[in-house]
Amino acid sequence: MLASASDPIDEIANRSGLPASEVSAILSNCEANQTSMNFCAWRDQLVAEQKLEHVVEATAGSSTACKTALQKKIAAWKKRRDANCSKSASREWGNGSMLPTAVAMCKTAATDRMRKAIGTEKCR
User: Fold this and answer.
1) Residue 61, phi-psi category: left (phi > 0), alpha (psi -120 to 50), beta (remainder)
2) Please, what is the angle between helix 8-16 and helix 20-27, to 10°?
3) How is residue 18 annotated by DSSP?
4) pLDDT of residue 124
5) Has residue 3 got a pLDDT over 50?
6) DSSP letters of 85-118?
7) How do residues 4-57 score in pLDDT, each as one tens digit?
8) What is the reported pTM?
C-alpha cells in the first residue's frame, strides 16, 4: 500500500527527490511538457490508489480478517494490473516518451474500477 502521505505532491516529492515546490509547479500545468504530463499521470495514479485504500478501510470496518483478505486480494490484483498496463502501454507506445504516462493512466483507470468493485463487497 501507499505511504501514509495524504498529499500526492509530498509523495511525489519524496519518491522523485524533487522539492515539493518544484513538484507543485510541474503539476500546475499538465500540458506544459512531457515531464508535466508524466507527473500529472503519476499524481492521478497516487490519488486513485489512496481512494482505493479508503474504500478498503470503509469496507473492512473493524474486521481485521476482512481487511487482511482485501489487502491480499488487492496485492495480487496490482501485480496483474501492473503487468497488463505495462504490456498494453508498450504495445501502443513502444519505449517512447509517452510510455510512463500511458502506464500511469492505465493503472489509474484500473484502480478506479477496482475501487468501485471493492466498494460493493461485503465482509463476512
Assistant:
1) left
2) 120
3) -
4) 63
5) no
6) HHHHHHHHHTTSTTHHHHHHHHHHHHHHHHHHHH
7) 447 899 989 998 999 999 999 999 999 999 999 999 999 999 999 999 999 999
8) 0.87
User: Alpha helices, DSSP H only, in the chain?
Assistant: 8-16, 20-27, 34-60, 64-93, 99-119
Please name the fold of domain 8-119.
Substrate Binding Domain Of Dnak; Chain:A; Domain 2 (1.20.1270)
CA distance 97 to 50: 26
For residues 76-114, one letter each, b for 16 or more C-beta atoms within 10 angstroms of the residue's C-beta and e for the rest, the string is: ebbeebeeebeeebeeeeeeeebbbbbbbbbbbebbeeb
Give the whole-angstrom CA distance, residue 112 versus residue 51: 8
Instruction: Name the residue ranges covered by the structural domains of the chain.
Output: 8-119
Q: Is 17 left (phi over 0), alpha (psi -120 to 50) or beta?
A: left
- The distance from CA 56 to its chain's CA centroid, rounded to whole angstroms, is 14
Determine the Cα angle at 10 with ends 45 and 88, to 5°: 20
